[in-house]
Automatic annotation (TrEMBL):
Residues 1-13, 465-482 have a biased composition (Basic and acidic residues). Residues 1-25, 465-497 are annotated as: Disordered. The keyword Cytoplasm does not apply. Belongs to the proteasome subunit S3 family. This is 26S proteasome regulatory subunit RPN3. One of its GO terms (cellular component) is proteasome regulatory particle, lid subcomplex. GO terms for biological process: regulation of protein catabolic process; ubiquitin-dependent protein catabolic process. The keyword Metal-binding does not apply.
Length: 497
């Protein structure tokens, strides 16, 4: 062995490297549970702060955090939270533990809380955690029973600091009935609650209940009653973006069924812009975009291709892409084939009736393309290109297209052909002005909404009044000192005289 080889040391000859012990599954689970319980304690503190300061934004923060905690909450964590906040032999504590008694759990710290009282906000918040857990476990009967009990508790407390939590309870209450196909049973109770929320100016419950009622009507295809509800109620301006997006979607569907496609498209655009853009809300985004695409096609416009390329929407919008392609090229045969192939999908989305209306748009698009391609064409050729039944049908459809302003042409009834007129410069019409007006209106509305959404510190004007009052007091003191100094100078002058 050479000297060089003797100088080289093996790694094991150096100081030993400490081995990191891998944590067991139980340790990882206990640490995760401790983190979730810490977040719940933080939420309890925020709820107490919301009651003391009468600031609803703390409750909003709690509910936002709870949405992310929902996937990590277990029965053991809920039991620990109950033992932490509820005093011994509390009525709500016994009831909540009874709903969690069947779940498998490990040992829970049974240390009782010393306080004899618990805030109603914390009491209903923990109950809300149990309610969502039962809903996730598909124990709908227990969920319905607990939700009815919690709503009675909300009415008995009658506290404005409970409004946001009560709105969530109403949502899961309706969801449990929907999953058991019993929505019709709760409609009178939702209507009564909506009237009460309106009288109390409870914006959170009012917005939630209004959307729940519209969803209830749509579930049973009661669109006339939904329209009457919308016309006789006012959606609160201070409602959150999630509820506002839902309301805009429902309005867009109502207007689409009433053939008011322009208003429907405007409402659906508002819903798309207000809805959160994340993976969690993918289902809502897909539903709104499906309806928006159909409405845009019914307006005679073609949706942008970038919509169909978005990762969240790509797979769900494949049937609607085929419908859009058929309408764009005016191919009635492709439209009928797509309708037969994806008819079940359209019925499941409750858009089949609206898509049937697109048949006339497909024909109008074909007529427009023919008018642009030919300065003169016979009705017989139009009948063959559009796969119509007879020349009389083609003549009627062309006449309707001319009346609606789709094409600019004239019909020669004697010789059986149509003659297109020369294309008019679009900039000589009002279309550019209308487009600019629409964009400016959108920017102004966005600015106004941004100003309304700005938050300011509560009672900030009082601090300004106090500072102004202190400044005036200092001015008075300074003026008094100057006056006293002048009097002293006068006395000195008199003494010298």
């Amino acid at each position: 062995m050479t000297n060089m080889e003797t100088d080289i040391k093996k790694p094991e000859d150096d100081q030993t490297v400490p081995m990191v012990e891998e944590k067991s599954e139980e340790q990882k689970a206990s640490e995760a549970a401790a983190l979730v319980l810490g977040d719940l304690k933080h939420n309890f503190n925020l709820l107490e702060k919301a009651v003391l300061t009468t600031e609803s934004r703390f409750t909003t923060r709690v509910l936002r955090i709870t949405a992310s905690l929902r996937r990590r909450i277990t029965p053991d964590i809920i039991k620990q939270a109950i033992q932490l906040k509820f005093p011994k032999e509390h009525t709500m504590k016994t009831k909540l533990l009874s709903y969690l008694s069947n779940s498998e759990s490990m040992e829970v710290d049974t240390t009782e809380v010393k306080s004899t009282e618990v805030l109603p906000e914390i009491e209903l918040y923990i109950s809300l955690l149990v309610l969502t857990y039962l809903l996730d476990q598909k124990e709908y009967d227990k969920c319905i029973e607990l939700a009815n009990y919690l709503l009675d508790a909300v009415h008995s407390y009658n506290r404005r600091s409970l409004d946001q939590i009560a709105a969530r309870i109403y949502f899961y209450y309706s969801r449990a009935y929907e999953l058991t196909d019993r929505l019709a049973e709760i409609r009178p109770k939702l209507l009564a609650a909506q009237r009460t929320a309106t009288l109390r100016r409870d914006d959170d419950c009012q917005a939630t209940l209004l959307n729940l009622l519209l969803r209830n009507y749509f579930h049973y295809n009661l669109y006339d009653q939904a329209d009457k509800l919308v016309t006789k109620t006012t959606f609160p301006e201070s409602a959150g973006n999630n509820q506002f997006a839902r309301y805009m979607y429902y309005l867009g569907r109502i207007k689409a069924l009433q053939l008011d496609y322009s208003s429907s498209h405007a409402h659906l655009l508002q819903a798309i812009r207000k809805a959160p853009q994340n993976v969690i809300t993918a289902g809502f985004q897909q539903t709104v975009h499906k309806l928006a695409i159909i409405v845009q096609l019914l307006m005679g416009e073609i949706p942008e291709r970038s919509i169909f390329r978005q990762p969240v929407l790509r797979k769900a919008l494949i049937p609607y892409l085929h419908i859009t392609q058929a309408v764009r090229i005016g191919d009635l045969t492709k439209f009928q084939d797509t309708l037969a192939q994806f008819g079940s999908v359209f019925r499941a989305d409750k858009n089949y009736t609206l898509i049937l209306r697109l048949r006339h748009n497909v024909i109008k698009t074909g007529i427009r393309m023919i008018s642009l391609s030919y300065s003169r064409i016979s009705l017989r050729d139009i009948c063959l290109k559009l796969h119509l039944d007879s020349e009389e049908d083609a003549e009627y459809i062309v006449a309707k297209a001319i009346k609606d302003g789709v094409i600019d042409a004239t019909i020669d009834h004697e010789n059986g052909f149509i003659k297109s007129k020369e294309n008019v410069d679009i900039y000589s019409t009002n279309e550019p002005q209308n487009a600019f007006h629409q964009r400016i209106s959108f920017c102004l509305d966005l600015h106004n909404d941004s100003v309304k959404a700005m938050r300011f510190p509560l009672n900030a004007h009082r601090k300004e009044l106090e500072s102004a009052e202190a400044a005036r007091e200092r001015e008075r003191e300074l003026a008094k000192e100057i006056e006293e100094a002048d009097m002293d100078d006068d006395d000195d002058d008199v003494g010298d005289f």
